[in-house]
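User: Some background: our group keeps a shared notebook of sequences we're curious about, and every so often someone picks one and asks for a predicted structure to add to the entry. Today it's my turn. The entry only has the sequence so far, pasted here. Could you supply the structure so I can complete it?
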Amino acid sequence: MAEAAVGDDYGEDRRAGRGSWRRQQSAVRGGLGRKGELQEMPVELLGLERTLFVPSNTMANLISVMCHCQCQGSQLLLGQECHLHIYEQGGVAQIARVYSHSLPDLPHGTLDLAELERMITRGVRSPYHQVCELICLENSHSTLGGRVLSIDYLRQVHLLTQTYKARVHLDGAQLMNMALALHVPPPTLWSTVTLCLSASPRWESPGLASHGQVVQSHNGHAAAAVGGGLSPVHVNISSGLPECLRSLMTCFP
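Assistant: Of course. Here's the predicted structure to add to the notebook entry:
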C-alpha cells in the first residue's frame, strides 16, 4: 500500500499541494492512479459509459440522484422500505433538495407498475404536481431479505420511463448477488447504477456509481460537492481492490 501509485484527484490544482512527487502521481492514469484503473474495469460489465469510485454506496446513490434531478423540487419515486429511503439520512432531501415520494413495496421487492405510471403521468398532465424525473429501484432488495427483481420486471420499468422521458437509478449495492442468482451478467436497463464493494461476494470496501452519457458532465461536480474526492478512497484502492474486481468479472465471460 505504501508503494502504490494512488494518484491525485486534484491533478495540477496548486491549492491541493506542490512538488514533483505530486505532479508525477498526477500523470498516472490521468491523475487518478489505481482509482482510474478500478473505474475503467467495470464499464463493460455494467454496460454504461463510465464509473466513479467514491467512499460509500450511500454517497454513490446521492451523487446519482443529484445528476438526474437538476431542478429543486424534482420528484423521485422509490419504495418505502428501500435502503435509500430509510437508511441514508434523507440525503436526497437534505442535500439534493429532491422530493421523494415513497410507494408500498410489493412482497417481491417490486413497485406496482400501474401506480408508477399514475404518479408519473400526474406530473405530466397537471402543473400542480411535481414532475417525476427518476425512479429508484433496489436489486437485490436488502430490507426484504435479499429479494431479486426479475429481468422482465426491470424491462417493464425501463419501458415505462422511456415512454414518459423519466430515468431509472438502480441501487445495486448487492448487484452481483442479483446477477449470480439470475445466472446472467448485470443487464443494462437503467441510466445509473451503484455497486457497493462490501456488499458483494468476496469484496471489501466502498462503492461505485456507474452512469451513461446523460449524467457524465455532472457526476464530477456532484462527487466533489459531497466529498467524493476523499483521500481514503485511494487508500482502499491500493489494498488490492482491482484484483478482487477482476476475479469477480471472470464469473461473466
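Suggested note for the entry: Residues 32-249 form a domain with the Aspartate Aminotransferase; domain 2 fold (CATH 3.40.640.10). Strands lie at 50-54, 75-79, 99-103, 132-138, 167-171, 192-196, 207-211.
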